Amino acid sequence: MEETRVLSRRGLRRGCHSDDFPLRDLAEAVHSGVKENIYLELDSGNQLTARGGIALAVCTSQLAPTLPLASALLCLESGARLRVRILTDTPPMHEMMLWFDEVLLAHLDMPFLTLRNITGKKTYTCHDCRTEFEHPNLLKVHLFLACHPFDPHVFWRRCIIKLQTALSITPVSPLPTLPITADPAQLEALAASWGRSRDGHICLYCGKLYSRKYGLKIHIRTHTGYKPLRCRHCLRAFGDPSNLNKHVRLHASSSLARKRDLLRHLRSHHPHALSAQSDT
Predict the structure, then answer these.
(1) I need a labelling partner for 134 at 20 to 30 A (CA). Which of 55, 116, 150, 189 fits?
(2) Stated pTM of the model
């Protein structure tokens, strides 16, 4: 099936822009299915518009692989509102390639590339998984998604969560909000269930992406403070099984150290006790 595209219907002038729209519009657009091309045009007031709303055009657009190839920027305006601004004169039926302005990139915490990522001419390499890309923005998005394959739904959902956190915005529908509950186990189960996506499991608190539900479940406990695991020796509470196992090993090593100290004391001060014990 042919991929949905965002196109300029009659051509657009550099500098034209959309009206400002709230993050709520983008959240709603991410969850609405699009099966046909979206066309950008100017209304009677020279504002950039699109059928279905400009937010729908944003989350449907291709991301520009590099800034010089971007034909439009998504900008963060005052009042935590968003705006699309056209960067270059675009001919009719030209596909929009979208990127983000510097302010929005900072709020998204989009990764920076360093010299270790530039491994050759037109070669950009992930320092975590060694995947190679021809353009820098593709690697930035790859790092933003924690080395998971690109999925528009997951990408925009994470963008929304990042912006909600950075701008102190109450989560908006249709992204689920976690209910106030006295049961941390129920809260953990809800967050893990609602974080399911086509390409992994996403944290509703911070947007971090995990390949396995178990990894997300353990991560959620860092936000909720839920610690259902107990040390059998001292009853100290833990949320992460690996941390509990490390703690238990400390008990074992401490017990061995105490046993060695006791044997050393007996050899020095009570050798007869050791002899009597060996005779029995």
Answers:
(1) 55
(2) 0.65
